[in-house]
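Continuing from the previous page of notes. For each protein in this section, the sequence appears first, followed by its structure tokens. Read the first protein now.
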Amino acid sequence: MAMILYDCAVAPNPRRARMFIAEKGLDIQKIEVDIIGGENLKDAFLSINPRGLLPVLELDDGTRFDEVMAICKYLEEVYPETPLLGKTPLERATVECLQRKMEFDGMIAIGEAFRNNKKNENFTYRSLPGNDAVGAIEGLVDRGQNTLNNFYAWLERYLTENTFVAGDSFTMADITAFCAVDFAKWVEREIPEGNARSLEWYNKVSMRDSTKA
């Protein structure tokens, strides 16, 4: 089945999709779109995704998905080998629960802190993803940073209880958490030195081939 992933090498959400695809061992054509330069807000890309968001997975019949988890759930159904979303109803619910927490407390919080920081000139009027020209809101920088405190605290707790974020197996929850940790460097945050289990987990995941995808 021929597919295309509209991608951006430096952006965290496309990276989540790339890591998932790499963990599955899939070979999917990628087309690079420059988010920093605003290529995703030009007519050529808006004709593909009017929301101006990445990643986008395009199927050979023209169907497109522009949400990371929709992409991953589709690929998991079509290519069930090396399950990354859980093998049983209990595992699937657990992975979904933890993945969402890593996304909201991590990825979204960092996005708020990054996009609303007026130092990031390319995003001065792009404080929301997509093509809506909303100006930066300084208070959201502090809110994002404070939410990140929760992210690091919960990540350490989950990894104290489990080998990986959602249990004994590497899953999408780990992909989202790992991408969030790297994305947080954009807002000058790293795993706290005292979070030993998180640091051990991060170093272990960093050795996986998918992190280089």
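Done with the first. The second protein uses the same format. Note its length before scrolling.
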Amino acid sequence: MKYERNDKKGAECFLRNLFKRNRSSFDKTELNKLLAICNESSDFLTFRLHDNSPFSISFYKTLVNPDTVHQNILASLSDQKLADLQTIKEQIPIENLLITKDLTEIQDKLMTGYVIFYEKEKSSDCLLIPAPAVEKRQVAVPETEYTVMGPKEAFVEALDTNVNLVRKRLPIPELQMKELTVGSYSKTRVKVSYVKGVADEENLNTVIQRIQEIEYDQIPDSSFIMQMITDHPHSPFPQIVDTERPDRVASALSEGKIAILVDGSPHVLLAPATFMEFFSSFEDYFYTWNIASVLRLIRLCAVTFSVLSTPTYVAILTYHYEMIPQDLLNTLVSSRSGIPFPPILEVLILELTIELLREAGARLPTKVGQTIGIVGGIVIGTAAVQAGLTSNVLIIVIALSALASFTTPIYQISYAVRLIRFPFLLFAQLLGMLGIAICLSFLFNHLLKLSSLGRPFLEPVFPLRKADLKDSLFRLPFDKQRLRPVQVRAENADRFEKQPSATTDRDIDE
């Protein structure tokens, strides 16, 4: 049956119905319809194997590897007498060949770089031969989670390469991968990874169920899945860790967490997560425990300062002058003399300026973005002070606040920090320090309600779990971390067997 170009409506209905059918086979007419629709694309090729051959070959030339087609497929059949598809299958030196009548499977394979053999006039069977063209970039250095010490490998967009990077670090048969397909149009491959015997079955089933329930046409990146399976999608705080480091994923899997790898995305999702994980860099484990603990406290204090510094400035200058020491008050009064704006408007102007510089620096090419950030900040800040639009004290506070917000090792949390600063400013302008306290109560109440895969988000602080404090606010030595985190509900909680305390040996010369 020939498909006419002007019958667009019928073609669209035919393609839509392919996703709804449950039959395992179709007649020859429907296969011809599919091939006719594909032939309308300029990159779809169809030709006979030989002039007198009953077999035809079809594929998308932009999806297949031409070397595989010419050297492994066509060259193997050039001098052979071919009676049927089974004979062709036996002659081609490629694995995973398949003969099928399932039209949905034929369509899916065509769109993922398969070559199909079929008889145009007789059987509706098709031989599917894998020959995909794999285009990928090389494994490079992490960009958003760069570390001075430790490995310098990052995930890429190729799913199989990412799986290889993880398996290289966990070469055990217990590392399992369950593959799912998401997206009615994109057909995105998703692998749910876990360590069997360690990961909690409830966590695993929750992740798989939520991914299977996703109904969306296109899934181009892991961030789409993260937003669709998170417990509280309307919260500005991420509840699933997004990382580009294979070493971090391997460590999380060994703890009992679930990793979600998405084809086309250089980022892997880790769940369940806690609030403190977003202030923990994997580089902390490459330093001694006391240095790592101090660095974590510095990050937490820096983020707290970033959120509260400018609201406190507005509250004090608007309502609480008596809180400022006399010497500092004289400096503030002199710096603000001649400023035509109230503190709240002055702060908003500079905060929005900083946000504009951040967005401009992020969207421009790397070298130009760095120049814009440095030069723009210096020029605008100096000009604003000289023009009398803002005080030099506030310039210092805003600069320190922006600098402190960059200390978060997980980039996702920085957006939440930037966002919640503005409600604090509004409450500080309305009620002063009382407004900041009220806003803090709302923030803590919101964080207490959050969960990740049903697990408490503020664990181990609330609920208090002393056993998990060893690797949250502080990082204790490795010999103190014998048990896996309680939050992940690992089936095997022991990392290693507890060793009996050894007696102190004498020196050799004693």
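What the second structure shows: The chain has 16 helices and twelve strands. Residues 226 and 506 are 56 Å apart (CA to CA). We return to this in next week's lecture.
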